[in-house]
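Today's session is about reading a structure prediction critically. Students often jump straight to the picture, but the first step is always the sequence itself: look for stretches that repeat, for charged clusters, for runs of hydrophobic residues. Only then move on to the predicted structure, which in these notes is written as discrete structure tokens rather than atom positions. Here is the chain we will use throughout the hour.
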Amino acid sequence: MSELHVELVAADRKVWEGAARQVSARSMAGELGILPGHTPLLAVLVSGDVRIETGSGREVVTVDSGFLSVDHDNVTIVAESVEGASVA
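Below is the predicted structure for this chain, in token form.
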């Protein structure tokens, strides 16, 4: 099964990077669900949770705003600030 390569970046640091089965986030246009094979996408995020489903569980962080980009199973999430106890 294909996986996504996800990179989550705050303004001052890389927060998380790894393989995922699914990414969910809230954009200005509504809730997004990203799976492997998703068409290219650039979305403006609003404040809310970003959920990253990995093979070993779920990472949940809260972003204030930012953007999400999808291209060839690479997902990049950039936010001004990222908060969440489950990320290092």
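Discussion point for the tutorial: Residues 49 and 62 are 4 Å apart (CA to CA).
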